[in-house]
Amino acid sequence: MLIERVLPPAAVGEDAHGDPSPAAGRQALFPAEEREIAGAGDKRRREFATARRCARGALTRLGLAPVPIPTGPTGAPVWPAGVTGSITHCDGYRAAAVARTADLAGLGIDAEPHAPVSPAVRRGITSPSERAHLDRLHAVRPGIHWDRLLFSAKESVYKACWSSVPRALHFEDAEVTFSPETGTFTAHLAAETLVLTGRWHVCDGILLTATALPASSDS
């Protein structure tokens, strides 16, 4: 399973490389979820259904019963009590990952197409030091779109932090560096005095990142 190549040991995941038929997608949803996307277009409905199916598969692998997973006011999925998790999707790929909050305080995953971002987006998501870092990485491993990978890593970081950091995070709030040798990355959030580590992987035109916040020692 592709998603498990980037997950921390305490997390489990489920992924899919396609969507079911519209009828099968409807059958995969709980009534509350069906109502949530009642007015959505076919593409959105199918990716939503597949992502929820992946999420329930991950919960089952964690030893929990399948339950509805609504969308909260911030747009993040609402997990059962005692569970943290993350959902991602891009063209041709959907994934979900979960862990118990006794093990992880937060979990973030992100999937992106393995393609470069525009110059304007690159400037908007990076600091000068990150741009210099990406240039050095490109010289060593030119086959990887490091700018898109950085975008993905920051998305994973913000998902992992959303329930623990009491403010909205932006691209300039995290400074990310990659290790091309180990398939890992480090994110420094200076204002929160947080340092997160994660993993990345590129395969079949898709790049994946994942990171997590460890549970506090007194939880």
From TrEMBL:
Record: residues binding Mg(2+): D110, A111, E112
Entry keywords, A to Z: Magnesium, Metal-binding, Transferase
Protein name: 4'-phosphopantetheinyl transferase
Domain 4'-phosphopantetheinyl transferase N-terminal: 33-99
One Gene Ontology cellular component: enterobactin synthetase complex
Domain of life of the organism encoding this protein: Bacteria
BP term (GO), one: enterobactin biosynthetic process
Membrane spanning residue stretches: none
Sequence ranges assigned to domain 4'-phosphopantetheinyl transferase in this UniProt record: 106-185
SUPFAM superfamilies in the record: 4'-phosphopantetheinyl transferase
Cofactor: Mg(2+)
Taxon lineage: Bacteria, Bacillati, Actinomycetota, Actinomycetes, Kitasatosporales
MF terms in GO: holo-[acyl-carrier-protein] synthase activity; magnesium ion binding
Sequence positions that bind CoA: R44, R52, T88, H89, D110, E155, K159, L169
